[in-house]
Fold this protein.
Amino acid sequence: MIKTISADQLIPGMYIHELNCPWVEHPFVRNQFKITETKDIKKIHEMGIKSLKIDTCKGLNVQENLSPLISSMKKRDTSQSSEQQPLKKQLPQTRKKAKNIKTHAENAIANIMADIKLGQQVELEQVTPIIDKMSESVLENHNALLGLSRIRNMDTYTFEHSVNIGVLMMAFSKSRNMPGAIIHEVGIGGLLHDIGKALTPPEILNKPAKLTDEELVIMRHHVVDSHLILSKTPGISQNALDVAALHHEKYDGSGYPDGKTGDEISLIGQMSAIVDVYDALTADRCYHKGQDPSVVLKRMLSWTGSHFNPTLMQEFVHCVGIYPPATLVMLSNHHLAVVTENNSNLLAPCVITFLNTKSHETIEPLLIDLSKQEKLKVISSEADVKWNIDPQKYLDII
Ligand SMILES: [Fe+2]
């Protein structure tokens, strides 16, 4: 069925029938196509298109996905059962706040990198208010920021990666019960850890293919540049400097720039090496698709002792969870769900269900705390692309 919808209702999986705009004026190869990535939706918004037509026979229908979820949320407010518990009520507000913080942080990093290209110094005042907000958010509910760390846009990879490293370092430090001052310092370090990339030639930084040996040397120099730039920054802490200087060192000495081993790498440095690899492998890049967090964690666990400190790696898994927020998972009743929050039992997170994969029908979505379920379990994590689903969409509307 052809249906006119608002551009705000677009989600991946919908089939565009008509963009209400001539072919020559839009950036897509065809007039009719299926939306597979959120960046396509962004392009449509950027073109100023307010409404368009979708074909619900060839793709997802807006009402099947959004309205039942909202109505079910209202229903769940008044009819809780011990089997299916709604999530904490402050979560939607917390997520909204977290999203604003993330956008501000990305803009700040973009501005700082532009300043560095012009030969200017970093001023900590540009990031401290953001880190204050991030600290608040991490202390309130670190799941909200962690879930957002999965939003990806290849064009702004460096900025997003920087913010994610800040978020992950703060969440990791908090889960290790480190003092607030250190959480603050590692957040600054994470945000600014790749600042030296401002001096990396863009054709190398954004090369959509494997780097040559010579290019790799230039690329790796960003660590030295980041450290140098930050060491000239008034008020910078040693912990922040360690994130910048040590995030590519490996536990067995095979990292760079100095090939340090074991405890030659400070605790903060060892933590930053873990979060940097985790974020890089889960990210979509111009040359490869990001892997599912649970797959990445499994791979990283197999490298412990060589690349990472084994104890810290275990602690990191406890921090982000085996199924981190925003992961798509299959439940034992064949319902597809998105993880919204972790529990102390890492195998039983809180999830939101929305699709019966046996009947291929959307179901009335429910927020379920799997730690309170006896029979219902997660049986696997699922690739977003396999189902053409953007998990963020479901998190955004709770
Ligand atoms: Fe780096």
Summary: The mean pLDDT is 82. The chain is about 45% helix and 10% strand.
